[in-house]
Amino acid sequence: MTRQAAGGWSAEAELAGQDVRCLAADGATVYAGTQAGGVHRSTDGGRTWGPCALHGAPVKSLAVTPGAVYAGTKEPRVFCSLDGGESWRSLARFSRARSWWWAQPAERPFRPSYVSGLAVTSEAIVAGIEACGVLRSTDGGRSWSGHRRRALRDCHELLVAGERVYEAGSGGLAVSSDRGRTWQRRSRGLERRYGWSVAVGDETVYLAAAPYRFAHCGNSRARIFRSGSNSGWEPCTDELPSLPRLRAVHGVRQGRFLAYLPSERRRYVSSTARVVRDSVLTALVRRRESSRARRG
């Protein structure tokens, strides 16, 4: 875990021995989805942990709303808890989408696929399935639509920001302005189309993306791109050795986010105007941006 303090950042190893695949937080309560250990929960901001659900299940995605926690698993199913993780129920299976034949290339065994992203809005639950589609439920998970037209079939991450839902996936970025009902792709001018992670600050969207053929190689050649509400895409980093996860930072400065490179154990801190270098990073950030930051 990494924490921000007055003197900077500190890192502490938690959940030793667990392959953590996703995190979600509700105040000081943090949930971690693991590859083989189900959901773990911390009620003290990540200092201590304990298993709470879905023991032995690969939990690939999590979402938290006021009063509910959602977990997406392999095989592709969504579970919901209304009591802070004490008890869980399965939502309806994805029968309409013929999930029995879903497969994915990301990990063995390649069948079945898994729920790679979850987004919960005021009127719908949106589930992204690795290499298979984006589905929507408007009745609390009692039934599911088929794949939403114009969403990206190969979903890697979903994000809710206001009334919009953002999807990073193969093809770049897709956006829904009506809580996942209809979608538009925002990939024109994006030079790398293997979208991996998305963050939103002010009116700026940030996307981590790589070339398809290098995305999961030793050097992914990934970059972080940004796009304003009325502008195209532009890169704001040099090539990165691995695909980063992007996360908005609330309550620090409007529009800031973190970009974490798991394989390198490095992070960026950014603003909506530019990406600036964190003290633990070397010259991965573009020199021009760094010089602008120093002049500012």
Strand order of the largest sheet: 3-4-5-6
Beginning-to-end CA distance, first to last residue: 31 Å
**SS element count, helices:** 1
Instruction: Give the low-pLDDT segments.
Output: 251-255, 271-296
Beta fraction: 35-45%
> What about the largest sheet?
4 strands, antiparallel
Q: How much helix is in the residues?
A: under 10%
What structural class do helix, strand and pairing data support?
A: mainly beta
pLDDT average, as an integer? 82
Order of helices and strands: EEEEEEEEEEEEEEEEEEEEEEEEEH
Radius of gyration in whole Å, from Cα?
A: 19 Å
Specify the overall morphology.
globular
Report what the structure shows.
The chain has 296 residues and is mainly β. 3% of the residues lie in helices and 42% in strands. It has one helix and 25 strands. Strands 3-4-5-6 form a four-stranded antiparallel beta sheet, with no helix packed on it. The protein has a four-stranded antiparallel beta sheet with strand order 7-8-9-10, with no helix packed on it. Strand 9 (77-81) and strand 10 (89-90) form a beta hairpin. The model is unreliable at 251-255 and 271-296 (pLDDT under 50).
Supply database-style keywords.
mainly beta, 25 strands, 4-stranded antiparallel beta sheet, about 300 residues, disordered C terminus
Reconstruct the topology from this structure.
Elements: E1 2-5, E2 8-11, E3 20-26, E4 29-34, E5 39-42, E6 50-53, E7 59-65, E8 68-73, E9 77-81, E10 89-90, E11 115-120, E12 125-129, E13 133-137, E14 155-161, E15 164-169, E16 172-176, E17 184-185, E18 194-201, E19 204-210, E20 223-227, E21 233-235, E22 245-248, E23 257-261, E24 266-270, E25 275-276, H1 287-295
